[in-house]
Every structure is written in C-alpha cells, then in structure tokens.
Amino acid sequence: MNREQFMARVRTAAAAGRSYRVHVNESIERAAGYVGGGADPIERFASQATAAGGQVDVVDDADAAVARLLEICQQYSARNCVAWDHLLLESWNVRAALAGRGVEMSSAGTLPGEDAATRRWRLLSADLGITSVTFAVAETGSIAMIDDAGCDTVASLLPPVHVALVSRDQLVPDLFDVFDALEARKSAGWPSSVVFITGPSKTGDVELKLTTGVHGPKHWHVIVSR
Q1: In angstroms, how far is CA 31 from the centroid of its own chain?
Q2: Any idea what the Cα angle at residue 42 is, between residues 36 and 46, rounded to 5°?
Q3: Hey, what long-range contacts does 186-193 have (CB within 8 A, 24 or more apart)?
C-alpha cells in the first residue's frame, strides 16, 4: 500500500467516524447523574475506597490519625518518607511525630531547591509518601489532589506506600461537587492539573491480568479524621 492509498483509507475512516459524533442532549438536567454520599458520607467513602483495594481507617481525631500513621510506618519498617507541605500535616504535628519514631521526613516543598542527584535520591529512597487531599469523594472512594507548591503529586506516585490524611471538611458527597468547587475557584486561575486516585496502582495490560503496584504505589492507605 502506497502513501496515497493509505491516506485515502484514513480519510474514509475519519468521515465514517464523524457520522457517529456525540451531541449533548440539552433536555437532560445536570443533576440527573448526581449520586451523593448517602446518609453517612464517611462510611460511604470508606466502603468504596476499600472496595477499590485501599485500606481506610476512620478515627475520632487528629491524635488518633497520627497514631495510626505511626503504626503504618512501623508496619512497613519505614525510615524515610516524602511528605507534603500542607496545613493539615502541620496542624497535626506530623513531622514531630515521625521524628519521634526515627522516620526522616523530606519536604515536597523544599525538594525543588535540592540538587538533582539529592532530589532523585530522596524521592526514590522514600518508603512512604504522605499527603493530604484537596477533596475526598464519598460517591467513588476517590481522593482528588491539586498539584500545587509544596503539594507535588509525586509524593503520591513514587513511594511504594501512599498514605493520605483526610479531615471531615475535605469530604464531598459526589464527583459533581468537586467540579462545582473547581468552578468556584476559577477566578483565581485553573490548577495546572487535578489528579484523582482510587485505590493502589493497577494495570491489566499484560495478558489481561490485573497487577498491583506497577505504575505507582502498591499500598494505598487513607486515614479519615471525623
């Protein structure tokens, strides 16, 4: 097949595809697909995230959340972690708690100032990545994170274990609520990216066999404080 024949086939296929173009049905109300978080959004989030392969702990307060984080560090024999510079982690005194257990915490906010070799070593040697979230979605058990200064999503991607710390006020009932909140923020500028995470990393592209932890963390923990 020469180039002209090949391009003719492409044009024919493209023309056929245009006949199936999707059109928006304006008669369907936007709220038609709204599911919500049910009577207990925290319980709904926990059950959905667990079903996706995550490990969720719902605790009563920040002290209990940090205590559970330290148990997870012990479970995986963690000695190094990379963590967000985030108000929640600061207010919960996460750095001091980790230091008290001999776990070195590298700050995602200061890593860009390190030389390339040091930055690479800190990221690749981290046993845990510790983040908060922008939103936790009860409907799907997902967490949504806006990549921002000090809150680089690499902390949730490179370490073999990702632990997300969540407070009740970060929980939203439905995915629609996430996009509504982002729309409300647009006057300050759209974020460069919004990452949704539902469970640990998974892939099924090798012989259609589901494998966990190939393209990201193998273990995904979420600690929710009421």
Answers
A1: 25
A2: 100
A3: 191/146, 191/147, 191/148, 192/147, 193/146, 193/147, 193/153
Helix (H, G, I), strand (E, B) or coil at 222: strand
What is the C-alpha separation between 12 and 171, in angstroms, rounded? 48
Helix (H) or strand (E) holding 193: none
Helices (H), the chain: 3-18, 41-51, 62-75, 87-91, 94-100, 116-125, 175-184
CA distances 174 to 47, 150, 163, 167, 191, Å, are: 14, 27, 22, 16, 20
Distance (Å, rounded) from C-alpha 225 to C-alpha 64? 8
Domains belonging to the chain, first-starting first, are 35-225 (3.40.50.10420)
pLDDT tens track for 15-54: 887 777 677 777 877 778 899 999 999 999 999 999 999 9
Residue 147's pLDDT band (boundaries 50, 70, 90)?
confident
Could you give the CA distance from residue 210 to residue 203 in angstroms, rounded to a whole number?
6
DSSP state of 62: H
> What amino acid occupies position 101?
R
To the question of pTM greater than 0.70 for the whole model, the response is yes
3-state helix, strand, coil in the chain (%, to 5): 40, 25, 40
Contacts of 145 (CB under 8 A, 6+ apart): 131, 133, 134, 151, 153, 156, 194, 195, 197
Tokens found for residue 165: 């710390």
Vertex 201 angle, CA 68 and 186, to 5° = 85
